[in-house]
Design a protein that fits this description.
It contains 19 helices and six strands. By secondary structure, it is mainly α. Bound molecules: arginine.
Length: 464
């Protein structure tokens, strides 16, 4: 039976009727629709609408509907997931099934289901991200004190520990987890009891419904609650950050896996060959992650545009906000899973990284710092070392290979301490500030990252 045919003389145009259905995609909301319906059934019983037998029958049937898988063949008579549950309920328990819709509206139902869906996805993506971050932490630990060049403008800038570089990504992904948990806090309120727009017509215990579904509280305003999609937009925005960071990571690993860099050895499990060029090993996993990131941003944009012109309260346009949310969640989960596999199996060419960290004048700033410690103004020291670099470029050598006489020509008194300051370990060691690349600081950062991670892993476990 249709959910709304009484006041119509004519049925809908057949094409329009099919075209406006959401069941082909909103069926993924079934577990949440069932949970929300059970919470509503309890409230109806409390309000005297269902007697205890009717409640028991309804709950039993709802559980069964939850256990059944949604039929693969899409039934064209079913409008949406709400209609599906009602239809199935009536099939199972007869006329009493129609009582469940007392005092509620699909407007609040879909708002509730979507919140429950997003909440679960947040917990899932958090768990996946925590595993991904763990892979970085393990690689950072395994890297020990190996060094590599850090780049600015994609030109060699200063040497850093490989672990320091990997921990930069740990920071990004920990922030992403934090953003998701922040979004979770705001979304965790329950629209049920808001009715179609003005609040339910029955004295339902909204606090009990919210508690049943593990929401922190009922929503505060029925008009807002039945039409708000901020939580969905915020979620997809948070996912966009994950995608953004994954994309930057993928790009850098693609670059570092080229023969030109050869810092990263592509794991065969996450690479593909070429049908034409027998020698190729291509970083497809990384390229697809970078490619899919764009799709996630597109979903975030679709949501913003979809909602921006809507007057209060519910409008059918809101049905169109579901697919971008499902799609972004699916894309990002898949991306993080593959990225975790990649990060777990990837190997680094530490020798080559160390070698690259040892030339290209990346000790120039440290050399200037040494002169500063001797009382020379930094601007002057910069100029002097700059001259020494120019000499090196002319002679085709590194700063540590210039003779004392060469330095004297540049106006630098190069004593033994000066030469010592040019050594890679010394250059790394002077970055001895919180957040810097000195070994002791990186070790500290690694410990902090592990603590944060265990906190998030704890939260993720508590939620599942
Ligand atoms: N399938 C609809 C949606 O996803 C459910 C709400 C329908 N409400 C209505 N007033 N037609 O938005």
């Amino acid at each position: 039976m249709k959910m709304w045919s009484g006041r119509f003389n004519h049925g809908p145009d057949a094409e329009f009727e099919q075209w406006q259905r959401s069941f082909p995609f909103d069926r993924v909301l079934l577990p949440y629709e069932v949970a929300a319906s059970k919470a509503h059934a309890f409230a109806l019983a409390k309000a005297g609408v269902l007697d205890s037998d009717e409640l028991a029958t309804t709950l039993f049937a709802l559980d069964q509907i939850g256990r059944e898988s949604v039929p693969d063949v899409d039934d064209p008579a079913i409008e949406d997931v709400h209609h599906y549950v009602e239809t199935r309920l009536v099939e199972l328990i007869g006329e009493v099934g129609y009582k469940l819709h007392t005092g509620r509206s699909r407007n609040e139902q879909v708002a509730t289901d979507l919140r429950l869906y997003v909440r679960e996805q947040i917990d899932e993506v958090t768990r996946l991200l925590a595993e991904f971050v763990s892979a970085f932490v393990k690689q950072a630990e395994a890297a020990g004190n190996s060094a590599m060049p850090a780049y600015t403008h994609l030109q060699r800038a200063e040497p850093v520990l490989v672990a320091h570089w990997l921990l930069a990504y740990v920071e990004m992904f920990l922030r992403d987890i934090d953003r998701l948990s922040d979004c979770r806090k705001r979304l965790n309120v329950c629209p049920l009891g808001s009715g179609a727009v003005a609040g339910t017509i029955l004295p339902l215990d909204r606090g009990a419904i919210a508690a049943e579904l593990e929401f922190d509280a009922p929503t505060a305003n029925s008009m807002d609650a039945s039409s708000d999609r901020d939580f969905a937009i915020e979620f997809v925005q948070a996912l966009s950050f994950v995608a953004l960071h994954l994309s930057r990571w993928a790009e850098e690993f693609i670059l570092f896996s080229t023969t030109e860099f050869a810092f990263v050895k592509l794991p065969e499990q996450y690479s593909t060959g070429s049908s034409a060029m027998p020698q190729k090993k291509n970083p497809d996993a990384l390229e697809l992650i970078r490619g899919k990131a764009g799709k996630v941003f597109a979903e975030a944009t679709a949501l913003f545009i979809g909602v921006k012109g809507l007057p209060l309260a519910y409008n059918k346009d809101l049905q169109e906000t579901q697919q971008p949310v499902f799609s972004a969640a699916q894309q990002v989960s898949g991306m993080v899973r593959v990225a975790t596999g990649f990060m777990t199996t990837v190997e680094f060419n530490f020798g080559r990284m160390q070698q690259a960290a040892s030339n290209g004048f990346m000790n120039a700033q440290a050399a200037a710092a040494h002169l500063v410690r001797q009382g020379i103004a930094f601007r002057r020291a910069h100029e002097l070392i700059g001259k020494a670099v120019r000499l090196c470029v002319e002679q085709g050598c590194e700063l540590e290979q210039l003779s004392k006489q060469d330095y004297a020509l540049c106006g630098i008194d190069a004593d033994e301490h000066f030469y010592n300051s040019l050594a890679l370990e010394e250059v790394l060691a002077i970055h001895n500030v919180p957040g810097g690349t000195a070994a002791s600081r990186v070790h500290e950062a690694l410990q902090t990252a592990k603590e944060k991670l265990s906190l998030f892993l704890g939260v993720a476990h508590a939620c599942t």
